[in-house]
Design goal:
The structure holds two protein chains of two kinds. Chain A is mostly helical. Chain A has one domain (2-32, 51-79). Chain A contains three helices and no strands. Chain B has three domains: 7-118, Butyryl-Coa Dehydrogenase, subunit A, domain 1, CATH 1.10.540; 121-224, Butyryl-CoA Dehydrogenase, subunit A, domain 2, CATH 2.40.110.10; 230-373, Butyryl-CoA Dehydrogenase, subunit A, domain 3, CATH 1.20.140.10. A four-stranded mixed sheet of chain B has the order 1-4-5-8, with helices on one face. In chain B, strands 2-3-7-6 form a four-stranded antiparallel sheet, with no helix packed on it. A two-stranded antiparallel ribbon of chain B has the order 9-10. In chain B, a hairpin with a 2-residue loop joins strand 2 (139-143) and strand 3 (146-156). Chain B is globular, with a radius of gyration of 21 Å. The two termini of chain B are 17 Å apart. The chains are: A mainly alpha, B alpha+beta. Chain A binds chain B through residues 12, 14-16, 29, 35-37, 39-45, 47-48, 54, 56, 59-61, 64, and chain B through 100-102, 134, 220-221, 223-225, 227-228, 230-232, 235, 303-309, 368, 375-377.
Chain lengths: 84, 379
C-alpha cells in the first residue's frame, strides 16, 4: 500500500517536473521549484487519489516534504477512516 | 458524457435570474453612477441565501455545488458586475474559513457570514504588490497572544463596508493569513472613488497601524499551509469572476440583439447589416465557449480534480478577454448611444477592463497557462 502510494505520487510529480528522479527521503521543497500553485495541486491530488480530506492541522510542510512523509500521512489518514 | 444542467440547477438559474431582474437590473446604472451599493440590497441578497452559497447547511448556508455557484455568479454578472464582486470576495472568505479554519473559527464566523450579518472581504493586494502577491509588505509581529499588524492594503473590493477581512501579512519569514475585524484597534479604512469600472463595489484602502489581532484569528498555518489558504481562496475568486464575465457577454448580446432589431440605418435594420452580424456571431460563439469552459472548471471542482485550478485560469482568461471584446462590440453596435450612460453597454465595457486586471491579469494568465500546456495534465 505504501509502495503504491509513493509510485502514484511520483507519477503525479512527473507531470510537473520532467526527468525528476526522487529518492524516498529527498526534500522536494529544497529542489527550488515548488510554488503555492503546485502546493495546492499536490493537496488536491492526495485528497482525490487517496480519498481523504486534508485538514488544517495536516497542512504542515513536514507532511509533504518527502515521498516517505507523504506516504506516512496517507497511511495515517486512510487508516483512520471507518471501513464501509 | 452529459452536457446539460440538472433540473435543480435549471430551477436555481430561473430563481437567480428572477431575483437579479427584480432587485438589481433596474438600478445597476444608478449604483454605478452613485458608486454605492445600498445596504438594503445587500440585506436582500443575504436573505436569499446567496452570501452563504458555499457554506454548508451545517452552518446555515446553502451548500451549493460549484456549477450552481457558477450560474449564480453568471446571473449576477449579467445584472451588475459590482454586485457579482460582492459574491466573489465574500465567498472567498467563507470558502477559506470553511476549508481551512479551526472549528472555533467556523462556528464563530460561518453562520453570520451565511446570513450576511457579517460581510467578508479579501485583503491581499497592496500599493506595491498586485500580480506579485508574494511581495506584500504588510508585517505581523507576535506580542504575547496578539499579533501587531502594520501596513496598507489597496483596491479591496467592498472594503468600505466589510466587517471582517481575510488579510495576508509577512510574519516571521513567511506569509500568514489573518481574520481582521473592522473594529480592531489600529484599523482604519478610506474609500477609493473614481474607478473606471465596477464603480459600485465600494473599494477601499485599509491602513493598519499596530492593529491588534488575536492569535485565535490566524487562519491555517504559515508558509506551506497558507499557500493552500491563498490559492484555494483565489481559485474561488477567479471562478466567480470567470462566470461573472459569462454574464457580461450574455448582457452584451441581449442588449445588442434588442438594439439591432429596432434601429434602422440606410433603410434596413442593423441586424440585417453583415458587419453587425459578424460582431453578433463573435458574441454568440464566445458566449457558448466561455460558458462551457466555466462549467468544466466548476465540474472539476465538484469532483476534487487537481487540474481544476489551471482549468479555472483558462476559463477566466477566455471569459474575461471575450467579455472585453463583446462589450467593445456592443458599444460599437450602439454607436453614439453606446457612449451614453442612458444605455448599459458603456458600463459593461468599463467593467470588462477591470475583469482583465483582477484575479490574475491577462498577462499573468498567459504566462501561467503556457506553463500548464507543457505539463502532463494537458491533453
Amino acid at each position: 500500500m505504501v509502495t503504491d502510494s509513493k509510485a502514484k505520487i511520483r507519477e503525479f510529480l512527473a507531470r510537473f517536473f520532467q526527468d525528476l528522479n526522487l529518492t524516498d527521503d529527498e526534500d522536494i521543497f529544497a529542489l527550488g521549484f515548488i510554488n503555492s500553485l503546485f502546493a495546492m495541486q499536490l493537496v488536491l491530488f492526495v485528497e482525490s487519489e487517496f480519498g481523504f480530506t486534508v485538514e488544517d492541522n495536516d497542512l504542515d510542510i513536514e507532511n509533504f516534504r518527502t515521498l516517505n512523509a507523504m506516504a506516512a500521512l496517507i497511511e495515517r489518514k486512510t487508516a483512520a477512516q471507518p471501513i464501509v | 458524457m452529459k452536457l446539460e444542467l440538472t433540473s435543480e440547477q435549471r430551477s436555481s438559474q430561473k430563481a437567480f435570474r428572477a431575483f437579479v431582474e427584480e432587485a438589481i437590473v433596474p438600478y445597476a446604472d444608478t449604483f454605478d453612477q452613485e458608486e454605492c451599493t445600498p445596504p438594503d440590497l445587500i440585506k436582500k441578497i443575504g436573505q436569499q441565501g446567496y452570501l452563504g452559497a458555499l457554506i454548508s447547511p451545517e452552518w446555515g448556508g446553502r451548500g451549493m455545488d460549484m456549477i450552481s455557484f457558477g450560474i449564480l455568479n453568471e446571473e449576477f454578472g449579467r445584472g451588475c458586475s459590482s454586485l457579482r464582486s460582492l459574491l466573489t470576495v465574500h465567498s472567498m472568505v467563507t470558502y477559506a474559513i470553511q476549508r481551512w479554519g479551526s472549528r472555533q473559527q467556523k462556528d464563530l464566523w460561518l453562520p453570520r457570514l451565511a446570513t450576511g450579518e457579517v460581510i467578508g472581504a479579501f485583503a491581499l493586494s497592496e500599493p506595491n504588490a498586485g500580480s506579485d502577491a508574494s511581495g506584500i509588505e504588510m508585517q505581523a509581529k507576535l506580542c504575547g497572544d496578539t499579533y501587531l499588524l502594520n501596513g496598507r492594503k489597496k483596491w479591496i473590493t467592498y472594503g468600505e463596508i466589510a466587517d471582517v477581512y481575510l488579510l495576508f501579512a509577512q510574519c516571521e519569514g513567511s506569509i500568514a493569513a489573518f481574520l481582521v475585524e473592522s473594529n480592531f484597534p489600529g484599523f482604519r479604512r478610506q474609500p477609493l472613488r473614481g474607478m473606471v469600472g465596477t464603480r459600485a463595489s465600494m473599494l477601499a484602502e485599509l491602513i493598519l497601524e499596530d492593529c491588534q489581532v488575536p492569535v485565535t484569528h490566524v487562519v491555517g498555518r504559515k508558509g506551506f499551509g497558507v499557500a493552500s489558504v491563498t490559492t484555494s481562496a483565489l481559485d474561488i475568486g477567479r471562478y466567480s469572476v470567470a462566470c461573472g464575465c459569462v454574464g457580461i457577454i450574455q448582457a452584451c448580446f441581449e442588449a445588442s440583439r434588442a438594439y439591432t432589431s429596432e434601429r434602422k440605418q440606410f433603410g434596413a435594420l442593423l441586424k440585417d447589416q453583415q458587419l453587425i452580424q459578424q460582431m453578433m456571431t463573435g458574441m454568440i460563439t464566445n458566449l457558448r465557449a466561455a460558458r462551457l469552459l466555466c462549467y468544466n472548471a466548476g465540474y472539476l471542482k465538484d469532483i476534487g480534480a487537481p487540474n481544476t485550478i489551471m482549468e479555472t485560469w483558462i476559463a477566466k482568461y477566455f471569459a474575461s478577454t471575450a467579455a472585453a471584446k463583446a462589450a467593445s462590440d456592443a458599444v460599437q453596435i450602439h454607436g453614439a448611444n453606446g457612449c451614453s450612460n442612458a444605455y448599459p453597454v458603456q458600463r459593461y465595457w468599463r467593467d470588462t477592463k477591470v475583469m482583465e486586471i483582477i484575479e490574475g491579469s491577462t498577462q499573468i494568465q498567459e504566462i501561467n497557462i503556457a506553463g500548464y500546456g507543457y505539463q502532463g495534465f494537458y491533453a
